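Below is how a single chain appears once it has passed through the pipeline. First comes the sequence as given, then the structure the pipeline wrote out for it. We keep one example in the README because the format questions we get most often are answered faster by looking than by reading.
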Amino acid sequence: MSGYGRNPPSLAVGTGTHSGGLHCDVVVRKRGGFHNCLMNIKKAATLTLFVALAAAAPAFGQGKVFDWLPANDESVRMDPANYHTGRTYQPGPQGGNIHVDIDAQRPVTIALTPASGWSQALQRPELIGSLNYLCVREHVMKTTYVCDLPAEPMTLVIHDERNSPDRAVFAGLGAALDENDKVDRAIGVGVATVLTGQGSVTRRFVAPNDVHIQYFRWACINNCFPPEFQWIRQVKEKYELTSFFKVYGGFAPERDGEQVSVKIKSPVPMVVAILPSNVADQLHARPDSLETALEKNACQQRGVQNLEFQCTFNASDGPQSLVVGPEAGGGVPSHKKAEIEMLASKCVANCAAPADKQ
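Resulting structure:
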């Protein structure tokens, strides 16, 4: 994914692909076609800019943070009036956004046009002047180019604004420079053959304009793999009521803010509490100590018969036990059962993943 906000891009398929887009030879015998078309479109079009936020809204409640990150880049050499076919973006039904840095030695015009129309214009250059253009930026030498895209494939087009010294051949296409020598090395044999109609040759430029294009991708930069939590059952039992307390141990919070959910269903009023295990273990020997323990405990319910409630614990609280029993002074019916269930919210994935993992 690169250069794209709401939807990932894909490169168009065609002749002469490389890391930044497509290259084909275009010859236009009518002066000013592209510039005049852009001027007309500029008067009618509404230019919309996208400013990427450093922190996006939380995704699925996990707090992921997104931003524009550099993707691949390309360097292109252009003669006066040349065009360069950049990346083709294919938005989804809701459209999308792009972010591209442009650095040129001489002024260029940047625009987006429907990919289908541009493909036809490469075959029939006379159509270039009648294409519709979006987010037109003229007289650019150094800029960050951003644009909101409609829900259709769009091709990035760069045009050298200088007049061609050869009026008969108004515009060819700029040549991608070798990535190992972005200034002096000739273009590859395949593209050179398309441009010149010959074999392995070096293209000669009349007045070179070197343009560097840095594409960006919309990507997660922080909390990309947040921990995932799931309710894990700790206790589930249906037991016959007695006057004694039931104590369920073995629960220890693993993190601060760990939640526990308790559900009780009983024919008689019950006391339900989660106490430190060292306190709960003493209740069988000293049942009268319960009231004192409950005075210092927040996770409890009194006189309940059908209820579900939650409590929160920290790792420093240590081992905890669930204590359940009939309220004092109430009768205990024979052969009646109470249902008790306790669940804890436990980390099940990405529990120790770095917050900024890419």
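The helical segments are 33-44, 115-123, 189-196, 277-280, 290-295.

See the next section for the split statistics.
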